[in-house]
Each structure stands twice: as C-alpha cells, then as structure tokens.
Amino acid sequence: MEEFKNDMLTEKDAQYLKIKEVFYHLIECNKDIPGISEIKWIVHVVDSPDINAFVLPNGHVFVFTGLFNAVANVHQLAFILGHEIAHAVLEHAAEKASVVHLLDFLGLIFLTMIWAVCPRDSLAIVGQWLQSTLKEYLFSRPYSRTLEAEADKIGLQLAAKACVDVRSSSVFWQQLELADTLSGHPNVPQWLSTHPSHGNRVEQLDRLIPEALKIRETCNCPPLSEPDPRLVFKLAMKDFLKESEKKDLNTTAEKQKVDPLPIGKQKQTSGA
Ligand SMILES: [Zn+2]
C-alpha cells in the first residue's frame, strides 16, 4: 500500500468499478469453496502501465491498469482475476516460503560438508555461490512455474463456474506473445523465468478448456457465442501477417527506387 499509495485509483473510478464488479462476481459464484468465503477480499487498482496483478495471502488483490488495458474483454479479465484468487486460496505464498526454508536448510548442510572436508574461505565462497545458483535455477524457478500453472488451472475452473467464456483465456497469452514479438522484446527462455512462457500457458490452457467447458455446462450457464475466440484470433493473425508481408514488400520496392546506387559506391562518393 505504501509503495503504490500515489498511484491508487479511487473507488469511484470507472476502471476500478469494472474490475471490482468482475472480481466480486467470481467470488459470489465460487463462495461454496471454503477457502474463498473465508477470505476478506479487497481489490486495489494501481494506475501503472505494467501488465501485472498480484495477490497477498490476506486477500488484498492488486491489479494494474496496464493489465486492464491489455485484456481484450471481460472474459480475459475474469480469467486473470480467477488466477489471482487461486494463488491466495491455494496458499501459494506459504507453500513457496516453506520450500525456500527447506532448500536453505539443505544448502546449509551442503556448505557445512564442504567446510568440514576442506575449511578454506575461497572454497566456502564458491560453494555458497554454487549452492544459491543451483537452488535458483534447479528448484525455485521451476517450482514457481509449477505454482503459476496450477493457478492457471484452478483460475480457469473458478472462471468457468462464473459462466465466463473460458476459451478466451488462452487468447490472452497469445495476445501477449504477439505484443512481445512486435515490440522486439526477446522472449525469456522458460528455464530462466519464474513464470511459464506464454506459449506453454497457451498449450496448457487449450488442454484444460474442454474440462472447464463441462464445468460451465453443469452450472447452467447460457450457451457460448460462436465462433470460438481462439479461431477468431487465429484468422485475425493470418490477415495481419499477410498485410505486414505486403507492407514489407512495398517498403523494399520503394527503397530500391530511391536508392539506385549500391551502398558501397555511395560511401566512396561521400568519402571523396
Ligand atoms: Zn500468478
């Protein structure tokens, strides 16, 4: 609260009200789950372009306006909020903390053994570095990705119970992947990251969507509109790629018109 106190949207703000409405609709439709009805949920909206959201174990959910602007519709927003609710209900923060403690303890044993065999400061420093690097890349980050995948899975089910069009969930990650590609941001390899890659999230969600659709049916939700938003996105992508290919060809042709001399020759002239 201290960190974002100057950027918090007021409770009268239209974006705040929309996010709050979708969030409490999800809570209402899932209140039969003890973990959900026991938590006192509070929504905070931070005015920041970051595409981000997070939840604290006490039920305070922080959503950034950058995320609100990145979702294409209310269904994608509901899925993301479901993901955050799942993190809190599954007590991921506590689970993560206990695993970190266990790893620190095992690391301590490892370092003590090195020290016992060869009590030299230099070796202790190298051992400490090795231990923390291995811990980070072999345990912490893969573990963090597992928790993210679990929150996607349960978040999808929570959204399904609230009659959300769960097919939109995987489109959200496809949109982010496209945005990353267009902005020229290199995709961080999954093994380096604390979160699964966008592509892996799309794959996992597409596998889980049929089951979520069944949950949706058992909740007597109204039938979903056709066509499938994933298909709409796919077709839009095809058109977009065709258009950009055409543009590329036009730009190259124009360049050739303006630029009759090979670059090497031009350099010679300017050098003289
Ligand atoms: Zn998450």
User: How many domains?
Assistant: 2
Distance between the termini: 64 Å
Radius of gyration: 25 Å
Number of helices: 10
Would you list the SSEs in sequence order as H and E? HHEEEHHHHHHHH
Please give the number of β-strands: 3
**Major sheet, described briefly?**
3 strands, mixed
Core attributes:
globular; three-stranded mixed β-sheet; 3 strands; disordered C terminus; 272 residues; mainly alpha; 2 domains; binds zinc ion
Question: Can you tell me about this structure?
Answer:
This protein has ten helices and three strands, in the order H-H-E-E-E-H-H-H-H-H-H-H-H. With 272 residues, the chain is mostly helical. It has two domains: 14-225, no CATH class; 226-272. It has a three-stranded mixed sheet. Helix 4 packs across helix 7 and helix 5 packs antiparallel against helix 6. The radius of gyration is 25 Å and the shape is globular.
Task: Note the topology.
Elements: H1 14-29, H2 34-38, E1 42-46, E2 53-55, E3 60-64, H3 65-70, H4 74-89, H5 92-117, H6 121-161, H7 168-183, H8 198-218, H9 229-258, H10 263-271
Parallel strand pairs: 1-3
Antiparallel strand pairs: 2-3
Helix pairs in contact: 1-4, 4-6, 4-7, 5-6, 6-8, 7-8
Zinc ion is lined by residues 83, 87, 148, 151.
